[in-house]
Amino acid sequence: METLLRRVEDELKRVNVAGVKQIAEALSYVPVFISLVRAYIKGTYRDLPIGTIIAAVSALIYFITPIDLIPDFIPVAGKLDDAGVILACLNFIRSDLDRYIEWRDRNLAGG
User: Fold this and answer.
1) N or C: which end of the chain has fewer CB within 10 A?
2) Could you count the other beta carbons within 10 Å of the beta carbon of residue 52?
């Protein structure tokens, strides 16, 4: 799983969607998905349904898969479907993700 998460991080660094605000906003959640999955695997945060983890991991896999609805080799447009999958997942797991972010922020702040 860590290999998958590192591949996602590497892919995110290569993505250039400058000037396309909607795609950039959607992809800004990818690091939060990664953080959530890592915390779950480490056992530091397990207060969520397994479906949330499955959805987040599935969205991350779709993000790094080069063969999808719009092929990734097409500049900018190739990431439209990836952003759509991330947003759909976000809508599905939003409340769990918000609780995780609150927990993460409290724990990182030491409180």
Assistant:
1) C
2) 21
Instruction: Read off the pLDDT of residues 22-74 as tens digits, 9 standing for 90 and up.
Output: 888 899 999 999 999 999 999 999 999 999 999 999 999 999 998 888 888 88
Please tell me the predicted confidence (pLDDT) of residue 61.
Answer: 96
Give the separation between CA 96 and CA 78, rounded to whole angstroms.
28
Report how far residue 35's alpha carbon sits from residue 12's, in angstroms, rounded to the nearest whole number.
14
Tally the domains of the chain: 1
Put residue 76 in one of left, alpha, beta given phi > 0 → left and psi -120 to 50 → alpha: left
Residue numbers of the domain that contains 69: 2-108
Confirm if 60 and 37 have CB atoms less than 8 A apart: yes
Lookup: tokens for 83: 């952003």
70, with CB counted inside 10 A (0-12, 13-18, 19+), is: middle
Other Cβ atoms closer than 10 A to 50: 9
